[in-house]
Amino acid sequence: MAGEEHIRQAYASILSGDYEQAIRSFEQAIAAEPGNPAYHHKCSITCMRSALWTKALRHAEEAVRLAPDQTDYRYHLASLQARIAAEEAKNELAAADPDYASVIGRLKLALELDPLLDEAWLLMAAAYGALGRFDEAAQAAREALRLNPAHGEAKRLFADYRRRHRRKQKRTLH
């Protein structure tokens, strides 16, 4: 069976909500035509949506290797790398004793790769807030809110950190 038939099957699986089968179909298309960067790209997107980070990264890197001039592939790879960095930072924040410098470093990397990643801005707000750096926390929450005005958690954090920053400034002045 040609790669295109597997791609059609993959899209049919996506439409029916069976992402595992879609990934298997994409992988069959790749096996049939391993040098086709579009197949790797499509597989990577579906893996990313399923939080299969390692597999998504491998296929995104292969798509870029096969077609380095393809802007969409490079953008997807950067976006994926940003999401992975944000996930790592989120996991570190959930640890018993987070290394905030490491968390902030990962989030800065994520935001260099994808400045539109509102989740990274929100995590940055939480990291700065935990360190008592309320002005920076409020700025990060504001950025998350600017990117996603309906984000309830960003609204709450922005108001909270802005209030805490003002209180801290008043204590410093008195």
TrEMBL record:
Keywords: Repeat, TPR repeat. Pfam families: TPR_1 (PF00515), TPR_19 (PF14559). TPR repeats lie at residues 3-36, 118-151. InterPro entries: TPR-like_helical_dom_sf, TPR_rpt, Ycf3/AcsC/BcsC/TPR_MFPF. It comes from the Bacteria. Gene3D superfamilies: Tetratricopeptide repeat domain (1.25.40.10). The keyword Transmembrane does not apply. This is Tetratricopeptide repeat protein. It comes from Thermobacillus composti (strain DSM 18247 / JCM 13945 / KWC4). The lineage of its organism: Bacteria, Bacillati, Bacillota, Bacilli, Bacillales.
